[in-house]
Amino acid sequence: MLIAFIVSVSTFLVFSFIHYAAKKKKPFKRALLSMVLGIAALCAVDLLAGVTGVYIPITRLTLLSSLIGGIPGVALLVLLSAF
User: Fold this and answer.
1) How far apart are the C-alpha atoms of 11 and 14, rounded to whole Å?
2) Is the dihedral of CA 64, 32, 3, 17 positive or negative?
3) What global pTM score does this model have?
4) Is 42 helix (H, G, I), strand (E, B) or coil?
5) Rounded distance, CA 3 to CA 83, Å?
6) CB neighbours of residue 46 within 10 Å
7) What share of the chain is helix, strand, coil (3-state, %, to 5)?
8) How many CB atoms are located within 10 Å of the residue 6 CB?
9) What 3-state DSSP class applies to 29?
């Protein structure tokens, strides 16, 4: 649990630095938004599993993947579940 927290905070700081280095406005807000959108996309895939037939179990690994990768990370998880 502690490792997941450390990875989450580290990811937030790295994303914030990337947005700051790219001279974006409000880098902390953008970093948090990309992380939250990844988690929301994973939840949406989980909620729509009955309709779409794509099931991704919500585990620590999938949560961290969607947190770090954002929406592209969830798309990769969906792609990998197809194989």
Assistant:
1) 5
2) positive
3) 0.78
4) helix
5) 29
6) 15
7) 80, 0, 20
8) 10
9) helix
Q: CB neighbours (10 Å) of residue 2?
A: 6
CA distance 63 to 51: 21
> Residues 4-47: pLDDT tens digits?
778 778 888 888 888 788 787 887 888 888 888 999 999 999 99
Evaluate if residue 71 carries a pLDDT over 80.
yes
Q: Which residues contact 10 (CB under 8 A, 6 or more apart)?
A: none
* Size of the chain in residues: 83
CA angle 34, 72, 42 (to 5 degrees): 75
Listed by start position, the domains of the chain span: 2-82
Number of other CB atoms surrounding residue 69 within 10 Å = 19
Distance of CA 36 to the CA centre of its chain: 7
